[in-house]
């Protein structure tokens, strides 16, 4: 593809991504499936260009408005070239526009605005634009994190690492690291999770024998830490209440040394489609997936389990704000109304999950969010109406959960840092043996 066609593809994708809730990754996948003429270099260029425009949309839209342009996928494409690649506005037309597959050439007014954009003083950009978050969200983050907010928001400008969880039922982490290194893959052991390996070079592992053989799973280190904090042990009965594709179930099956039982529930059967195959590859047969309704009709399914479960893991549906380095489009799509709906849903799920926990058993509440309303506030609200539960400080569980490095707080509360794990939250609640 010539540069003008690549740029037009990026603009079309930004349009599609902005118009529908579907994640950017899916739009990009189906876009290229229908355009076989695009080679791997074209796909990589367009994908990286689109992701950068999504990550840095705040800066691009500020520049558009300053220069007198309406923010749009088209303006974001022009301005990415000018601001991030130092393309001179007068040379844009010679190689980046026109032709049968290119964007329409800039009008004289647009060309004048682009020339203005090239002269903007970027150091004058207000913090909310430079933070690349919608204003209502950056206000929330600043209110919650104070002086740290700028660093946290800036971390979303970088790429998230690719991290593997080694299936300790089948291999050791050291052996897998050695195998990867023999293949020329640069990788390191994760520093907190005892099961993880972070890749330092970009490799496509989707058809890798280690993955197909169930020796590894793709899982961020934060999710691995969270699953470990459940301290699911051999012989226990566990419920993974929001199981999705089974990432936490598989991680818990490993700490259970494949002895015991995991009920994997989810209201969306299609999300659980992969559990059987992943479990088979991992050599795990203790996971029983079951689609639930998410309302009182589940009572019949739950009845025999009430008060019997050692660990109930609630990996709740959430804003996903801890993972927005991977899905930068989602931060522009979340609305205050949707966030309120999610908070209500999380409270409802906790209320349904709580009765299942056995006396002395644990309810683990996790989100991949950095927002207090989905995390600490949710747990506080739960504890205020469920005196039969108490918070087990995460710092006291750290060592027995096999985690390295130590932790000083009551809950696990991670924000993304440059090159590090995703933002994640976990609180561990124990059901009292005798209720007062
Ligand atoms: C964060 S995802 C789970 C990810 C999964 N645990 C993993 O590790 O791969 C949240 C899941 O909650 C499910 N969900 C939404 N509403 C639910 C409800 N009322 N009860 C149970 N699951 C629900 C969603 O379908 C989604 O799969």
UniProtKB/TrEMBL annotation:
Coiled coil: none annotated. This is rRNA cytosine-C5-methylase. GO terms for molecular function: RNA binding; RNA methyltransferase activity. Residues 152-432 form the SAM-dependent MTase RsmB/NOP-type domain. One of its GO terms (biological process) is RNA methylation. Pfam families: Methyltr_RsmB-F, RsmF-B_ferredox. Belongs to the class I-like SAM-binding methyltransferase superfamily. RsmB/NOP family. The keyword Ligase does not apply. The active site is at residue 368. S-adenosyl-L-methionine binds at residues 266, 295, 315. It comes from Sneathiella litorea. InterPro entries: MeTrfase_RsmB-F_NOP2_cat, MeTrfase_RsmB-F_NOP2_dom, RCMT, RsmB-like_ferredoxin, SAM-dependent_MTases_sf. Keywords: Methyltransferase, RNA-binding, S-adenosyl-L-methionine, Transferase.
């Amino acid at each position: 593809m010539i540069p003008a066609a690549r740029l037009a593809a990026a603009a079309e994708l930004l349009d599609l991504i902005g118009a529908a809730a579907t994640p950017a990754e899916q739009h990009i996948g189906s876009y290229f499936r229908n355009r076989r003429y695009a080679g791997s270099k074209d796909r990589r260029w367009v994908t990286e260009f689109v992701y950068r425009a999504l990550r840095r949309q705040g800066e691009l839209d500020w520049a558009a408005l300053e220069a007198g342009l309406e923010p749009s996928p088209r303006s974001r494409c022009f301005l990415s070239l000018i601001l991030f690649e130092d393309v001179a506005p007068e040379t844009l037309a010679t190689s980046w526009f026109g032709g049968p597959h290119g964007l329409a050439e800039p009008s004289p007014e647009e060309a004048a605005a682009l020339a203005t954009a090239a002269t903007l003083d970027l150091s004058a950009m207000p913090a909310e634009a430079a933070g690349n978050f919608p204003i209502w969200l950056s206000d929330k983050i600043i209110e919650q994190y104070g002086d740290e907010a700028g660093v946290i928001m800036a971390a979303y400008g970088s790429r998230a690492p690719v991290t593997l969880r080694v299936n300790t039922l089948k291999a050791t982490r050291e052996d897998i690291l050695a195998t990867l290194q023999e293949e020329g893959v640069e990788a390191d052991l994760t520093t907190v999770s005892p099961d993880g390996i972070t890749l330092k070079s970009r490799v496509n592992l989707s058809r890798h024998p280690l993955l197909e053989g169930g020796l590894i799973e793709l899982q961020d280190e934060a999710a691995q830490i969270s699953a470990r904090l459940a301290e699911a042990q051999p012989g226990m009965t566990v419920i993974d209440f929001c199981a999705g594709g089974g990432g936490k179930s598989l991680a818990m099956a490993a700490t259970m040394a494949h002895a015991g039982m995991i009920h994997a529930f989810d209201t969306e059967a299609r999300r659980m489609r992969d559990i059987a195959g992943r479990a088979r590859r991992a050599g795990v047969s203790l996971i029983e997936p079951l689609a639930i309704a998410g309302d009182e009709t589940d009572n019949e399914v739950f009845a025999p389990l009430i008060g019997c479960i050692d660990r109930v893991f609630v990996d709740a549906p959430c804003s996903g704000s801890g993972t927005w380095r991977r899905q930068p489009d989602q931060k522009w799509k979340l609305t205050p109304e949707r966030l309120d709906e999610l908070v209500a849903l999380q409270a409802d799920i906790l209320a349904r999950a709580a009765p299942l926990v056995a006396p002395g058993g644990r309810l683990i509440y996790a989100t991949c969010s950095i927002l207090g309303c989905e995390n600490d506030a949710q747990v506080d609200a739960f504890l205020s109406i469920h005196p039969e539960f108490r918070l087990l400080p995460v710092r006291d569980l750290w060592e027995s959960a096999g985690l390295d490095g130590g932790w000083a707080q009551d809950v696990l509360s991670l924000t993304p840092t440059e090159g590090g794990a995703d933002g994640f939250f976990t609180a561990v609640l124990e059901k009292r043996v005798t209720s007062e």
